[in-house]
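WARN no homologs supplied; continuing
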Amino acid sequence: MQVSGAQGPSVTSYAYKASLIGSAHRFELTDAGLSWHIAGRSGLWRYDEISAVRLSFRPVSMQQHRFRADLSHTGGGRIRILSTSWQTAALMAPQDNGFRDFIIELHARMAQSGSRAELTAGLGRKTYAAVLAFLAVLTVAMTGLLIRALMIGEFAGALFIIGFAALFAWQVGGFVRRNQPHSYSFDHVPKALLP
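OK structure emitted
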């Protein structure tokens, strides 16, 4: 992230590469609004034209510590901003400080403009309910397998199930906890959804 403005208007910028192929997605917070450049297209959204912001925690296999901001425009457009950038075929680098500072500054500028945007955190309510239902079914199945392994005296299998369940709970628990759906305000941006 870069901040400039000693001689003129204040500009805060952020960029990331969404894939190895293609140019970087670039964003600037200017006095006029959010300026964006994505895949050869560009535009300027006034801060009061941003109708919704959703923050979420979205880990992927190559980057377990990845955050995402989805912005919606009153005219129907959507922009996705990620906290990681592709560096090489095997490396996705985090940009934690730049992403966090950019998102906090975006919220501050939207608040200053009198924005009435819907601010939500986590997954959508239906998606979150589906995730919880899947985890409940998986828990019942794993418990059944554990009981069966103990009943037939297969203690190595029982230990494997316990170990797998602990690893799975550790990996998925943070995702479920951070992505619990809720609303927030401009002055209380959820820290759990920022790097």
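The longest helix spans residues 125-151.
OK
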